[in-house]
């Protein structure tokens, strides 16, 4: 592999693995699929256009690899709701911005933790149920005693709140 691709791979590996852990809910599987992602990315490097967002491009490859894995296992992906995948992509897109100096990934994780703590109880519960407890939208609705649409609205509001909070926190960093 080229030296510059190796450098980029090491820089983006934690983000790709974290993204895959959200989608696959399995740390070891996420590591394996991340490796496949970087091999595929290297093979497709000629199709990467200058000025394109490298992190977003990698996440697209990773998402496709994750879906291919679940199809090959004939199992239903744990994250199937397009709104959930969109929310994960939005959060990771916001995390793509580089922070000058220091460990940019750690700064982003800390900022995300702070922003999660600043959400209202209802919004935080919805995020925790879906993203941390591996529950579907319907399971979350049953657990919280609300309608499915309410969970969708809470997740949407929470993602918007997290996005705005991250923008503010990362500008200050």
Helix-strand pattern, N to C?
HHHHHHHH
Extract low-pLDDT stretches: none
Mean pLDDT across every amino acid position:
79
| Biggest sheet character | none
Amino-to-carboxy terminus distance: 33 Å
Number of DSSP E strands:
0
Tell me what the structure shows:
This protein is mainly α and 173 residues long. The protein has two domains: 1-80, RNA polymerase sigma factor, region 2, helix turn helix motif (Rna Polymerase Sigma Factor, Chain: A, Orthogonal Bundle); 81-173, Arc Repressor Mutant, subunit A, CATH 1.10.10. Helices cover 76% and strands 0% of the residues. The protein is built from eight helices and no strands. Helix 4 runs parallel beside helix 8 (148-172). It starts with a helix and ends with a helix. The model has no long low-confidence stretch (mean pLDDT 79).
């Amino acid at each position: 592999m080229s030296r510059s691709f190796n450098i980029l791979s090491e820089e983006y590996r934690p983000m790709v693995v974290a993204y895959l852990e959200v989608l696959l809910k399995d740390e070891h599987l996420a590591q394996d699929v991340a490796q496949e992602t970087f091999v595929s990315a290297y093979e497709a490097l000629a199709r990467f256009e200058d000025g394109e967002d490298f992190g977003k491009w990698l996440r697209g490859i990773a998402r496709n690899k994750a879906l291919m894995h679940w199809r090959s296992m004939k199992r239903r992906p744990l994250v199937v709701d397009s709104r959930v995948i969109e929310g994960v992509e939005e959060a990771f897109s916001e995390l793509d911005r580089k922070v000058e100096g220091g460990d940019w990934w750690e700064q982003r994780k800390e900022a995300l933790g702070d922003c999660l703590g600043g959400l209202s109880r209802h919004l935080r519960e919805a995020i925790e149920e879906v993203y941390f407890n591996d529950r579907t939208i319907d399971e979350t609705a049953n657990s919280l005693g609300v309608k499915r649409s309410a969970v969708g609205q809470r997740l949407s509001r929470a993602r918007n709140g997290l996005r705005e909070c991250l923008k503010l926190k990362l500008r200050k960093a």
